[in-house]
Write a structure and sequence with these properties.
219 residues; single chain; 8 strands; alpha/beta; 8-stranded parallel sheet
């Protein structure tokens, strides 16, 4: 199956999941996760009409997306991997959406760069719904207060929440928890669901899903 066929299949599955959940057509966005793939591997997805992409690392992204963005207007780039505070300037300059705000040090660094650069990427808080020690993210119980600090102390606009459920657990309860936290925090966007579980995420209210291997193939 060619990339454009895999992309069409994912889009069709999202559309079906929307219908099955009684949601409006087009209410779930697709973030094509292009991490580790080079510009030549990404271009077929752009040619097939995909405009929203996700990357894990700032440095890797700089190496390919400056060129790709120059070639094609309207690309929206999401940072979906952990962000170090010393990369905040580069992240604000390159990314349209940063989904992995997970501690106050990062939030402060982003606030400073947003003010300095006059550029306002949309921001999501990453929530560690499974309380996994090896995984980044704010603990669920701490999420409302952290959103409050970001908004009220640092003047950041928080658009949504994101999570990566534990690989060996049913993702449904984690998606349900993230949706509940979003309501508590007064945020509208939910970034949840990956190649193995994005249709489940749509049923639980995802507004965007992050799909990589089902589009680009195995890494």
């Amino acid at each position: 199956m060619e990339l454009h066929e895999r992309l069409d299949d994912v889009r069709a599955r999202i559309a079906k999941a929307e219908r099955d959940a009684g949601r409006a057509a087009g209410s779930v966005g697709l973030v094509a996760v292009s991490k580790t793939f080079d510009a030549d591997a990404i271009r077929p997805a752009i040619l097939a009409g995909q405009r929203v992409f996700g990357e894990n690392r700032v440095q890797e992204s700089q190496g390919k997306w400056a060129e790709l963005k120059a070639e094609t207007p309207g690309i929206e780039l999401h940072l979906i991997g952990p962000l170090q505070s010393n990369k905040a300037a580069e992240a604000v300059a390159l990314f349209d959406v940063i989904e992995t705000v997970d501690r106050e040090k990062i939030a402060r660094a982003l606030a400073e760069e947003i003010k300095r650069q006059g550029k306002t990427p949309r921001l999501y808080i990453q929530v560690n719904t499974g309380l996994e020690p090896q995984k980044a993210g704010v603990a669920p119980d701490d999420t409302p207060s952290f959103v409050g600090v970001c908004r009220n102390e640092l003047g950041l606009e928080i658009e949504g929440l994101m999570c990566i459920p534990p690989a060996d657990e049913n993702p449904g309860p984690h998606f349900a928890l993230l949706a509940k936290l979003a309501k508590q925090c007064g945020v509208e966007k939910l970034s949840m669901g990956m190649s193995s579980d994005y249709e489940i995420a749509v049923a639980f209210g995802a507004t965007s899903v992050r799909v990589g291997s089902a589009i680009f193939g195995a890494r």
